[in-house]
Amino acid sequence: MSPGATTAVDSLAHLSATEALGGFRSLEISPVEVLEAQIERIEAHNGDRDTGINAFTETLFDTARHRAAVAADEYVRLARDGGPVPALLGLTVATKEKHGIAGLRLEQGLAAHRGRIAAADHPVVERLNMAGGIIHARTTSPEFSCATTTHSPMWGTTRNPWNLQASPGGSSGGAGAALVAGFTTLATASDIAGSTRIPAGFTGTVGYKAPYGRIPGFSALAADWYRGDGPMGRTVADTALLASVMSGRHAADHGSWGGNGINPLAGGSVEGLRIGLSLTLGDYPVAPEIRENTLAVARALEAAGATVVPVDLPWTTGRITETIFAHFGHILGPAMAVETAGTEDRLAAYTARFIADAAAAARRNTLVESLGMDAALQGELAAAMAGLDALLCPTSAVASLAADGDYLNGIDTAERHLGHYWEAHMTSPFNVANRCPVLSVPSGMSADGVPTGVQVVGHPFAETMAFRVAAAVESLVPSLGSPVLA
């Protein structure tokens, strides 16, 4: 096949959710056809755990085929009789393994969890099923979703379809890889320091970190105010559609809030908006090609009628890393230590490093002190965004990561050595300021053949404005297309 050439199967597999729904309603295409096209691509291109894309922990094709046939019949009935159409009826959704499905494994890549079975559906899974979505596969993540690459002893290495030597990012790396490869229409993700936006940036997809509590979580760690579950898609509209299904108050999560079924994509141009631009968020050593791609987005927004305002923030990568690890040291780190007790010798190196770094930061900073560190960053962001409608910045400072990289000794950039791999990503400040809605949308390509992304940051709870600007960016940046898979 020549570069860029597509087949009918490829075209069906890569339909956006909105395109697929239109075809389903008109009976021009069937949910069965789309599912089978994606299964064909999975079987042809997902490969093995060592050299392939390896996006999934398991597939659920038999159940999915049954549900697709039921959805196809329902569209025929609806065309005849009319009536309301469930929001995701017939659409495939690949769910992150941590979003438990009752009766199926819930291992999070950990040897300590091997054989663990979910007792109940995660609230996100419950809502996908109620909306008619078809869960046909479960996506990979690093152990306990604690790294920015996606590999583990249990599940092997997940690779970026754009460049198999590169990582799709993490921790929702399987979700990003599956989307861009045409293995699924939609995907679920989670984000406690960038785990939705980092893979979106590296795969040329769209990832949304909603305000804290907007999408319900599960179990005790749902109370961690840095965290959030979220949607990923190939377009801003698809991501908004999935967000509308996932969002809203749920009895299982007392921190959840707001209405369900509200689509945050309200439309509107950027003409007259004031959009802040920060290329470095203080002192992040942003790669030249990422700077240029971000500047190109800013110039396009200006041409569309927005006023772009340079923004300075008094942040350093070291300070941000200390802030987030002080937080992790009092919540996530101790939880991981408890969950992995007795299996320390079987942990991935990055997991052991995360637990150790979190514990060390907690010894340096009390919980009360970490709250003060959070508040300082939040206040500085609020001051920088005063008088603006949204903020634009890169998603990651580096152009790519090696698929199997641990980065235990940090990362070298053209400007300086970063002592910790988290300093390569510009996402975690907005988990500290976790009431802000943030999307990562594509901004172009790097010399490594890996996409680059920009983040659109809204004021606290201002979801519609964040989606408005993100949709404008998407319309102004040339489409990346899809990677050609061998």
Automatic annotation (TrEMBL):
Its EC number is 6.3.5.6, 6.3.5.7. Keywords: Ligase. Residues 33-465 form the Amidase domain. Pfam families: Amidase. Belongs to the amidase family. It comes from the Bacteria. This is Aspartyl-tRNA(Asn)/glutamyl-tRNA(Gln) amidotransferase subunit A. GO terms for molecular function: asparaginyl-tRNA synthase (glutamine-hydrolyzing) activity; glutaminyl-tRNA synthase (glutamine-hydrolyzing) activity.
